[in-house]
Amino acid sequence: MVMPKSERDLARNGDGGIYAHVVGWGMAVPDMILTNHDLEAIVETSDEWIRTRTGITERRIASERESTASLGLRAAQRALDIADVLPTEIDLIIVATSTPENIFPSAASLIQHRLGAVKAGAFDLSAACSGFVYGVEMANQAIRSGSITTAVVIGSETMSRILDWQDRSTCILFGDGAGAVVLRASNTPGGVLSAVLRSDGSGADMLSIPTVGSEDLSNSYFLASEHRMFKMYMNGSEVFKFATRVIGESILEALHKAGLTLNDVSLVVPHQANARIIQSAARALKLDVDRFVSNLDRYGNTSAASIPIALCEAIEQGRIKENDNLVFVGFGGGLTWAAMVLQWGVPPAIEGFAGSRIKRQRRRASYFLARWGMRLQRWGRTINRFTNRLLGRSEQKD
Ligand code: ACO
Fold first, then answer.
1. Beta carbons of 154 and 99 less than 8 angstroms apart
2. CA-to-CA distance for 90 and 335, rounded, in angstroms?
């Protein structure tokens, strides 16, 4: 019997197909740092408890002027610089987030406009902390099908806005930030080799942010009395057990799909939720914990942003070389989980590299025009409304 070729075999042999490679990356975190000691003044906790139970020392908190879209925009701009891609070359922008500014317009649409990506489709993707891996896989499939050439996938969060700052079991865990990658079509085999996306909605009560359209919280048999509208609720110990189980399973499944084994893996970039979860996954897989990227001591859990932020730092630290096999693994609300295997296809970033000078200037011009174009359009609409009212005309007639 002829065994079907794994996706990896097809990639290795070169089948004239299209492959999605990561060609740019960027991250953005707020300047404001909230330490464990600062938290001691907000809730009954201690630096010692947080460090030993989670591995977190500090996290970043967005200022009033920062938002999911503004952090995501900065990360995307950096990724476009590394990739040396113009905004007009982008076909698709996906923002994985649980903390968008609006239900609509999406954070992705806001970023699309602010980049001046006038030929791009844009949407937000809701898969909590697994969202970035889901997003990369959506972009990968669109590229491999030939439907698009260039995609920007962003994980961006302002978790500080949906935390219950009186709930010490959640507010100490999360932070704000964004990370982004640019994916491009290439005939060179490699890039995204496989992905496993999973969901189990029966765990919806374990991790949630009730919002518009939620059941009446006071009468709900489904949600616990601790749930509050627009605030995160989490049953930490249950999520912990779920996370340690699915990380190993999904990594092995994604590797199998790619025709690889754990021995082929150079680096695992996991969702940054808890150092103990990472250690337990490493133990279960019998992998040295040094092969897992971990930066949650400095950023906490930034949900959908955690994997791209950890990826950016690993690249900056020179931990990723050409042809390395990387694994991304995420888990979170939904419940959702996802793992992905990639063969790194571009050389590590050259320090200070920011693409060709002309393209860089064109990107800056695009951002400037987008910002002022939007302001002018809005002023135009306001003046129009004002004039119509003055002249006693109904807006609908116009
Ligand atoms: N400071 C001091 N004590 C605390 C704190 C705190 N911040 N939080 C909880 N405690 C107490 C509890 O009240 C409890 O006290 P008790 O024994 O007197 O009742 C005790 O510490 C132990 O509480 P546990 O909840 O059992 O603590 P645990 O060791 O499980 O750690 C934690 C809690 C850190 C939340 C852990 O369960 C965890 O990391 N869970 C997974 C979270 C995760 O992975 N989320 C991923 C997805 S997030 C997303 O999708 C958006």
1. no
2. 31
